[in-house]
C-alpha cells in the first residue's frame, strides 16, 4: 500500500495594497513576529515532504527575512490570482498523483496546527477538502453552498450570491487540501475572471463537482484561528484579540492581570502562582517567572528568568537577565544581556547592569553603571559609581569581593579587583587592585581658602 506524501503551498505573493505600505503584507508583525513566520512555523510542524512559498511583490525582501533551509521559494512574476499562484507551485512539486497538497495563506497569522490536522484527516478519503468557518457577519466572504444531503457543492462569492445565499454564515477560508493529480488536471482549466486575467482557486470546487469527485469540508470552530489580514486595522484588531486571549490564559492559571487590555505578549510567558502584572507591560521572547513575582507598570521583559518573590519596579527594561529569589529591580533600571542577580540583591533607579554577576544581598541603588563585573555578596555600591570597562578597543573585567563598600561617584577602571571587605572612598578613581580589608582613596586633596570672594559681573556700559 503506497503512502500519501504531504506537500504544502503557502501563498505570499500579494502586495497587500490595503496595508498602504512599501513592505510586503506577509512581513507585517503580529505579537512581535511576521505573519509569514507564524504560518511557516505551523506548516513545518506538519512535517511535509516539501514546503513551497509563492512570492511576488518584495520577493527578495521576503527571502532575506525568512531564511529557512527547508523552504522552496517559487516566484509568481505576474500577479494573476490564487489559482495561478498555486499553479506556479504545483509545477515544481515532485510527487505522485495521489499525494496531497495543502494550500495555506501567508496572511493568516494565528493559524492552528490542530485545525489543519483535522482538515487533513477529512481529506484522507476525499479528492478535495475545504476548510470553512462560521462568522456572525459573513459579508464579503464566499458562502459554502450545500445540497439537501449537506454535501458541499459550490462556493458562492458575495457578488454572485442570491439574497438567501447571503444569509449563509458558513464561509470559505481559502485553505484547502487536494490530490496532486487532481490539481494538475484542474488548474490548467481555470478561466480569467476580470481584465487583469486573475484565476481563482475556488473554481476548482465546481470542477470537482462536475467531475464527480468527492468533496469534504472541515469547520474550524474558532474564526480567529483562520482569519486573514487585509489592512492594518484588521491586523490591530487581531493583535488585540490575541493579546486578550493570552492574558485570559495567564489569569485563569493564577496570575493577576491588572488590565488585560494593556499588556502585550510577544513570545512565551510562563508564570508561577500569585504573580501580578500591572499595566503597559511588554513580554518578548521566552520569559519565565516564579511564584509571587510583581511587575509594576511600563516595563519591558525580554528573554528573562525571574525567581520567586522578584519585584520589578516601574519603567524598567530587562533583557537576557536572570534574577534570583527576592531580587528587586528599578524603578527606571536597565538589565542588559548577561546580567545575573543572586538572591535578595537590589538594583535601584537609573542603574544599568551588563554582563555582570551581582552577589547575594548586594546593592547598587542609584545612578550607576556596572559592566563586565563579578561582584560578591553583601556589597554596597554608592550612587554614581561607574565600572570603566572599555579602553577604546577591548572590554575588561572588574572583580569585587564580598562585603565591599564603594563610596559615591567612584570610578573603577578595569581591569581591577577589590578584595573582600575593601572600602573605596567617595569620589575615587581606582586604577590599581585594592587588597582585602584596605581603604582606597584616590582623589584630589580638598583645599580651603578663607575670605574667598566670588567673581562679580562687569558693569555694562550703556
TrEMBL record:
What PROSITE patterns does the record tag this protein with? HEXAPEP_TRANSFERASES
Which pathway does this chain act in?
A: Nucleotide-sugar biosynthesis; UDP-N-acetyl-alpha-D-glucosamine biosynthesis; N-acetyl-alpha-D-glucosamine 1-phosphate from alpha-D-glucosamine 6-phosphate (route II): step 2/2; Bacterial outer membrane biogenesis; LPS lipid A biosynthesis; Nucleotide-sugar biosynthesis; UDP-N-acetyl-alpha-D-glucosamine biosynthesis; UDP-N-acetyl-alpha-D-glucosamine from N-acetyl-alpha-D-glucosamine 1-phosphate: step 1/1
A Pfam family annotated for this chain is NTP_transf_3
Residues of the region (Pyrophosphorylase) are 1-232
- What does it catalyze? alpha-D-glucosamine 1-phosphate + acetyl-CoA = N-acetyl-alpha-D-glucosamine 1-phosphate + CoA + H(+); N-acetyl-alpha-D-glucosamine 1-phosphate + UTP + H(+) = UDP-N-acetyl-alpha-D-glucosamine + diphosphate
Q: Name one GO biological process term.
A: cell wall organization
- UniProt cofactor(s): Mg(2+)
Subunit and interaction comment:
Homotrimer.
Q: What is this protein called?
A: Bifunctional protein GlmU
What organism is this sequence from? Halothiobacillus neapolitanus (strain ATCC 23641 / DSM 15147 / CIP 104769 / NCIMB 8539 / c2) (Thiobacillus neapolitanus)
The record's gene field reads glmU
Amino acid at each position: 500500500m503506497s503512502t500519501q506524501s504531504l506537500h504544502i503551498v503557502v501563498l505570499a505573493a500579494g502586495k497587500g495594497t490595503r496595508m498602504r505600505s512599501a513592505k510586503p503584507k506577509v512581513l507585517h508583525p503580529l505579537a512581535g513576529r511576521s505573519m509569514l513566520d507564524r504560518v511557516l512555523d505551523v506548516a513545518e510542524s506538519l512535517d511535509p515532504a516539501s514546503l513551497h512559498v509563492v512570492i511576488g511583490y518584495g520577493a527578495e525582501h521576503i527571502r532575506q527575512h525568512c531564511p529557512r533551509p527547508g523552504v522552496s521559494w517559487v516566484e509568481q512574476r505576474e500577479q494573476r490570482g490564487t489559482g495561478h499562484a498555486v499553479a506556479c507551485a504545483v509545477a515544481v512539486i515532485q510527487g505522485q498523483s495521489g499525494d496531497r497538497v495543502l494550500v495555506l495563506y501567508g496572511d493568516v497569522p494565528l493559524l492552528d496546527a490542530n485545525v489543519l490536522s483535522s482538515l487533513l484527516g477529512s481529506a484522507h478519503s476525499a479528492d478535495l477538502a475545504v476548510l470553512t468557518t462560521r462568522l456572525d457577519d459573513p459579508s464579503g466572504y464566499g458562502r459554502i453552498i450545500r445540497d439537501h444531503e449537506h454535501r458541499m457543492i459550490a462556493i458562492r462569492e458575495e457578488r454572485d450570491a442570491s439574497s438567501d445565499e447571503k444569509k449563509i454564515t458558513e464561509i470559505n477560508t481559502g485553505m484547502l487540501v487536494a490530490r496532486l493529480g487532481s490539481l494538475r488536471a484542474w488548474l490548467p482549466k481555470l478561466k480569467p475572471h476580470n481584465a487583469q486575467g486573475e484565476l481563482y482557486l475556488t473554481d476548482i470546487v465546481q470542477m470537482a463537482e462536475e467531475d464527480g469527485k468527492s468533496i469534504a469540508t472541515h469547520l474550524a470552530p474558532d474564526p480567529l484561528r483562520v482569519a486573514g489580514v487585509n489592512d492594518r486595522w484588521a491586523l490591530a484588531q487581531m493583535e488585540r484579540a490575541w493579546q486578550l486571549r493570552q492574558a485570559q490564559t495567564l489569569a485563569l492559571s493564577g496570575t493577576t492581570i491588572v488590565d488585560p487590555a494593556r499588556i502585550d505578549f510577544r513570545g512565551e510567558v510562563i508564570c508561577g502562582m500569585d504573580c501580578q502584572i500591572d499595566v503597559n507591560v511588554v513580554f518578548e521572547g521566552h520569559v519565565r517567572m516564579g511564584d509571587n513575582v510583581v511587575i509594576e507598570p511600563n516595563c519591558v521583559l525580554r528573554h528573562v528568568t525571574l525567581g520567586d518573590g522578584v519585584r520589578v519596579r516601574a519603567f524598567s527594561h530587562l533583557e537576557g537577565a536572570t534574577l534570583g529569589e527576592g531580587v528587586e529591580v528599578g524603578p527606571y533600571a536597565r538589565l542588559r544581556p548577561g546580567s545575573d542577580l543572586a538572591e535578595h540583591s537590589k538594583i535601584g533607579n537609573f542603574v544599568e547592569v551588563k554582563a555582570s554577576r551581582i552577589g547575594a544581598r548586594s546593592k547598587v541603588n542609584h545612578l550607576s553603571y556596572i559592566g563586565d563585573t563579578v561582584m560578591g555578596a553583601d556589597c554596597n555600591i554608592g550612587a554614581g559609581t561607574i565600572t570603566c570597562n572599555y579602553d577604546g578597543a577591548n572590554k575588561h573585567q572588574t572583580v569585587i569581593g564580598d562585603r565591599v563598600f564603594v563610596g559615591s561617584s567612584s570610578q573603577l577602571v578595569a581591569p581591577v579587583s577589590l578584595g573582600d571587605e575593601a572600602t573605596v572612598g567617595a569620589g575615587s578613581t581606582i586604577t590599581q587592585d585594592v587588597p582585602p580589608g584596605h581603604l582606597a582613596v584616590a582623589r584630589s586633596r580638598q583645599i580651603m581658602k578663607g575670605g574667598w570672594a566670588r567673581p562679580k559681573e562687569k558693569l555694562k556700559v550703556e
